[in-house]
Amino acid sequence: MRIKVDVEKCIGAGQCVNAAPAVFAQNEDDGMVVLLNQAPPESMAAGVRSAIRLCPARAIVFDD
Amino acid sequence: MSTSAGIVVVGGGQAGFQLQQALRSQGFDGRISLLADEPFLPYQRPPLSKAYLKGEATDDDLAFATADFYRDSGVEIIEDRAAAIDPRTKTVTLSRAGSLSFDRLILATGARNRRLPGLEGVHGLVSLRTLANAQELRDRLLATGDIVIIGAGYLGLEVASVSADMGASVRVIEMAPRLMSRSASPAVSRLFQERLEARGVRFELASSGVRVLHHGGQVTGVEWNGGSVRTKLVLACIGVDPNTELARDAGLDVANGILTDGYLRTAVPEIYAIGDCAAYPNIHFGQTVRLESVQNAVDQANCVAAAIVGEARPYASLPWFWSEQAGMKLQIAGNTTGQAQEIVVDGDHQAGALSAFHFRDDVLVGVESVNRPKDHMLARKILRSRQVISAAMLPQLLAPAPAA
């Protein structure tokens, strides 16, 4: 699984960090999403899928 | 507390979804029933006026979770409405059939769009709140290539922006003399107006006597004092009313929303109200408010879930909000709706990046940021911690930190 984030769309809601804390973080300064792992392992897939669905700005997508 | 009857959540929007999710993630293992009256699993509304309208997201993409998720976490989704609540017997009667007992009841009934009177059933007059609404809007917009939007609030302007980008002819009619007048500063209104006009959106501001024209059951145009336009598609974005009838009929206090205490409890301690339907004392605004936002729905749901699992704390989250129009990101923290405030604007209008800092009695109470996410995050931190910042302190706050 490969994913990417669009910082232009991000609004700093933090939903992704709650859903998959090992994959997403928020920048201290501006709250924007920081992708910690572009290719998270299958063990984290459920959390990542949840993050994609919960992001209110739709800033996370699969990078096929 | 016996958890045999469990938790009943009325409403399958953002607040209702978050409540069940938060309960499970905080370890609640009792029964949870979620009443959702739309023919879809709970879904996100913000993209309806953005990515979904553009065609960049499908119906399925909008769902917060798939059916498997609810099954695996033991949450029962019931596609029905609550017809009545009996607080004495702690029972909810369902609209179609049956009833549910509850230990705790969470009202997340949301709000509904106001409608223009006397136009029921007229084709081409649409509203936007549900996925079904969004499907109809998108289909009609693609068919007509032309839309008139009544109301220049966030929703109307987001649709205007996307519609113009899709190549449609777009006109926005607004009673107030400027855009987003309820909560945006004049500087922000002006910037968005310019950028939307540059994308082809036409505005009829300060328009009174707005009237939708129709013939043979189909919209034919809109007229107002001073002008008129022919169109087959009109979107009314004229505000919402909270869904309070269920609570009122159960004997709960309602005003502009279901009234709660600082813990989001109604006068019946086992019944809470959260999200768009709840009117609660907001410690940051110093008054009772009813807010319509993702942040409000999510944070209130988390607060109530914590109370149910045994960690009751007063609801104290800082309100924030965002909108996306004309390729710009607007972020708002705190209260920018008050009157008689001093507003200090910092930034670059030409570059489309600025923040408007709102002060009341020389204390920072709210910040609007356009393409300045650092200002927004700083504002969230300051306002959340209730730091007292005066207008004179602003330059120092905005100065870049000295190099280490």
Automatic annotation (TrEMBL), chain A:
The keyword Electron transport applies. Residues 1-31 form the 4Fe-4S ferredoxin-type domain. Keywords: Electron transport, Iron, Iron-sulfur, Metal-binding, Transport. It comes from the Bacteria. GO terms for molecular function: electron transfer activity; iron ion binding; iron-sulfur cluster binding. Ferredoxins are iron-sulfur proteins that transfer electrons in a wide variety of metabolic reactions. This is Ferredoxin.
TrEMBL record, chain B:
SUPFAM superfamilies: FAD/NAD(P)-binding domain (SSF51905), FAD/NAD-linked reductases, dimerisation (C-terminal) domain (SSF55424). Its cofactor is FAD. Residues 320-394 form the Reductase C-terminal domain. Pfam families: Pyr_redox_2, Reductase_C. GO terms for cellular component: cytoplasm. This is FAD-dependent oxidoreductase. Transmembrane segments: none annotated. InterPro entries: FAD-oxidoreductase/Apoptosis, FAD/NAD-bd_sf, FAD/NAD-binding_dom, FAD/NAD-linked_Rdtase_dimer_sf, Reductase_C. GO terms for molecular function: oxidoreductase activity, acting on NAD(P)H. Signal peptide: none annotated. Residues 7-301 form the FAD/NAD(P)-binding domain. Keywords: FAD, Flavoprotein, Oxidoreductase.
